[in-house]
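Recall the central idea of this unit: under ordinary conditions, the amino acid sequence of a chain determines the structure it adopts. In this exercise we apply that idea directly, starting from the sequence alone.
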Amino acid sequence: MSEINVTPLVDVMLVLLIIFMITAPVLAHKIQVDLPQPNVNNPPPTNPLDPIHLKIDQAGALYWNDTPVDELGLKAQLAVIAQQSNQPEIQIAAADGVAYEHVARVLADAKSYNLVKIGFTEDF
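Accordingly, the structure predicted from this sequence is:
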């Protein structure tokens, strides 16, 4: 028999046609999304503060803007930042092999001083 059997091909094409006929109206349906609007009463600050770079090396040692600091010194620095009305962002950079315990301790200390501007970077 030298002819190609096209029956399976026609079956597959009809199934695909039915699927597209069912899904096409769903894709054309518009969804109303309420996006947050910018607050014109409080414009963003024109002079944002420089972020604070907090590094945690593999052994768990802390560096506040490239200056070594112990845990008590870190808590003192966090207390100073907590007193400011416009708090700078704290950018935490942890080494690849650092234990999660060290990062969790820093985050817990920041939370205890009600600091909310915390970010993570890969610059180590």
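The first helix runs from residue 7 to 28.
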